């Protein structure tokens, strides 16, 4: 009796909605932050997430951060 050691191919019918959802969530969060915080919070607090992202990306001196790791 012959045996086949190869596995059957994985199912390709996954839809792709998961990737769409994961890519849309950050944009929806940013839009929600802009709409909610712009009318309620002071300007310094409103810009804090954007400033924090810039510091993480560029570093405190503008020459480091994670952008330096990527080349």
Percentage of residues in DSSP E strands:
under 5%
Rg for CA atoms = 22 Å
* Overall mean confidence score, pLDDT: 75
- The secondary-structure class comes to mainly alpha
Low-confidence stretches: none
Largest sheet: none
**Count of alpha/pi helices:** 4
Total DSSP E strands: 0
Instruction: Categorize the overall geometry.
Output: elongated
Helix percent reads 55-70%
Element order, helices and strands? Answer: HHHH
In whole angstroms, how far apart are the ends?
A: 56 Å
List the helices and strands and how they pair.
Blueprint: H1 17-40, H2 43-46, H3 48-58, H4 66-69
Describe this protein's structure:
There is one protein chain. 61% of the residues lie in helices and 0% in strands. The chain has 71 residues and is an all-alpha fold. The protein has a domain at 42-71. The longest helix has 24 residues, at 17-40. It is elongated, with a radius of gyration of 22 Å. The mean pLDDT is 75.
